[in-house]
Design a protein that fits this description.
Elements (H helix, E strand, L loop, with lengths): L4 E9 L4 E8 L5 E6 L2 E3 L3 H11 L4 H13 L1 E3 L1 E8 L13 E3 L12 H9 L4 H8 L2 E6 L5 E7 H7 L4 H18 L11 E4 L5 E4 L19 E5 L12 E3 L6 H8 L10 E3 L12 H25 L1
Parallel strand pairs: 4-14
Antiparallel strand pairs: 1-2, 2-3, 5-13, 6-9, 6-12, 7-10, 8-9, 10-11
Helix pairs in contact: 1-2, 2-7, 4-5
């Protein structure tokens, strides 16, 4: 196992039938090589879009096999902000799973109040960008233990959110579900806002919540409202460049199949590909990524068992 090391090149030696993997240590910049018979490759499509041709530059057949599929598949970003509270979340309605904003043509835009604008000014954050992120919240999910909630931010708003530090993200997300949806009132404005509660069976029910008192949280912790938070920055991570693959308008399931196809320069599976984007049924999910890894191991296991039987 090589920690803090980046794979910068993979090459197959036709004469020795061996793979050479070039590694760069991220701590001291030292370059080293290791040899192996097989590689299981699990990086994201976002990473492959930026690095595939460079890493496998000596393998034109592999590039020809997969490059079009890498280009065709889309790769998006959904970031999460997790708010952790110092007490059970007593304000959350009983027997309720997720909260989803209902977007309507006549919906009044959420406007930042004076306190929020002052906070953003202190943090050197453009209020219009904060507004953009707030409008990009897809849903809010509570934990089973009712001690934290997860706020999902998607689309271009997820990318914009990555320019904010975690303090700003937690502040905005706390206010969005407390003031915007649970309270339903901002700066004495009381727009009509509906939400959807999911009960775990795929059903939804449009409800109008009563106004909750903001003092429920107790203004005494680091963020000033009884909770702390942290978020994900998937697109900023150059080893990820996003968080999920999807079928773009020019992609098809064939692209997932081609991406999953093993590289067999000598008839042997030398580079086996895995990751959520290679799964034909459960792409864009953790269990899809996990299952694809199991499948990749099974490919090598089956080959090694067959090769052993032939000796």
């Amino acid at each position: 196992m090589r920690l803090s090391s980046e794979v910068t090149k993979v090459a197959f030696d036709d004469s020795d039938h061996i793979l050479t993997v070039e590694l760069v240590n991220q701590l001291d910049g030292n370059i080293s090589n290791l040899t192996c018979n097989h590689v299981i490759w699990t990086t994201s499509v976002g990473y492959l879009k930026e690095n595939f041709q460079k890493i496998f530059s000596s393998e034109p057949d592999l590039i020809h096999q997969k490059q079009s599929s890498i280009e065709n598949l889309g790769f998006g970003t959904a970031n999460k902000v997790i708010l952790v509270y110092d007490a059970p979340i007593s304000f959350w309605p009983d027997n309720t799973a997720d909260l989803h904003p209902l977007i309507s043509v006549n919906q009044t835009k959420y406007s930042l109040n004076k306190g929020e604008r002052a906070f953003l000014t202190e943090q050197n954050v453009d209020p219009s960008q904060a507004q953009f992120v707030l409008d990009g919240v897809l849903c809010v999910s509570p934990s089973v233990s009712m001690r934290f909630v997860i706020v999902w931010i998607v689309g271009e708003a997820a990318l914009a959110a990555e320019s904010f530090n975690e303090l700003v993200l937690a502040y905005l997300c706390h206010n969005i579900f407390l003031s915007r949806y649970l309270n339903g009132a901002v700066d004495n404005q009381k727009p009509s806002r509906a939400i959807i509660f999911g009960f775990g069976f795929g059903f939804g029910l449009g409800l109008q919540l009563p106004k909750y008192d903001v003092d429920l949280f107790g203004l005494d912790l680091d963020l000033g409202f009884g909770c702390s938070g942290f978020g994900s920055y998937w697109n900023k991570n150059r080893f990820e460049r996003g968080s999920y693959s999807y079928l773009s308008v020019r992609a098809s399931l064939d692209d997932r199949d081609r991406l999953r196809q093993s590289y067999t320069p000598d008839g042997i599976p030398r580079v086996v590909f895995a990751g959520e984007a290679t799964h034909s049924h459960y792409s864009s999910s953790v269990h899809g990524a996990y299952e694809s890894g199991i499948n990749a191991v099974q490919i090598l296991r089956q080959y090694l068992e067959t090769a052993s039987d032939c000796r």
